[in-house]
């Protein structure tokens, strides 16, 4: 068992613990699920273990493809060792197809293919509902430099290409996703997670969501959808009881 005694912070889908090494931390993925900024809560049984395995797979792929990220190694079913970064309080959203808040904002139906990839920045501030901001807001607030944001955007587009291709190979369409980045020894690293909690994955044939939208919109078969993504990615079949 991994020693989880020094809690640093608790997020929606994860808890972060300190280790004896100040440069490292342990992320523990949770089954608890939150939507609509915490207004809707629930549990997706097995989600923590599934997301831990999906993140191990995706971060390992991104490392192989040269995208610097915080992942070091998986420790057990639920926990992974990561580099302890200082999170940049700006979330990057990348969109290939219209869904969610973009559909509402621009009045296009869900599923509309965008002529080019859309990149958005949001403040990481749940009390303000993570508002959409632009580069001049970010530099005016002095929360990140223009160079840091440029690097985050460049890495986000590479993640879109790499994860998009990987998903296409398993008949899943990458609709959109959000990323968080951290500062670590003078560099910007991809941090947080890349999982069905943070990405919209649609089955390429049926266009059924295989992600957190099944929970948000009460579509049922939530656990099954997470298991399906893991199974298609890795061949891993986690049993209900694990
Ligand atoms: N997203 C996320 N956490 C959030 C908000 C959004 O991981 O707190 C992800 C979401 O799952 C989707 C992408 O970011 O893959 C774009 O989300 P959107 O802005 O459409 O917001 P949503 O409709 O998810 O609230």
Small molecules bound in the structure, each named once: uridine-5'-diphosphate
User: How many DSSP-defined strands?
Assistant: 14
Specify the number of helices. Answer: 6
State the helicity in percent bands: 25-40%
Report the end-to-end length measured between terminal Cα atoms: 15 Å
Structure class: alpha+beta
Shape: globular
- What value does the average pLDDT take? 96
The helix/strand order is: EEEEEHEEEEHEEHHEEEHH
The portion of residues forming beta strands comes to 25-35%
What ranges have pLDDT less than 50 throughout 5 or more consecutive residues?
none
Characterize the largest beta sheet: strand count, sense, and whether it forms a barrel: 7 strands, antiparallel
Roughly how many Å is the radius of gyration?
17 Å
In short:
With 242 residues, the chain is of the alpha+beta class. The protein has helices at 47-64, 100-106, 135-141, 146-168, 213-216, 222-234, and strands at 7-10, 14-18, 24-29, 32-35, 40-43, 71-74, 79-83, 86-87, 90-97, 113-123, 132-133, 172-184, 187-191, 199-203.
Report on the structure:
- The chain is of the alpha+beta class and 242 residues long.
- It has helices spanning 47-64, 100-106, 135-141, 146-168, 213-216, 222-234; strands at residues 7-10, 14-18, 24-29, 32-35, 40-43, 71-74, 79-83, 86-87, 90-97, 113-123, 132-133, 172-184, 187-191, 199-203.
- It is built from six helices and 14 strands.
- 30% of the residues lie in helices and 32% in strands.
- It is globular and about 50 Å long.
- Uridine-5'-diphosphate binds next to α2, β12 and β14.
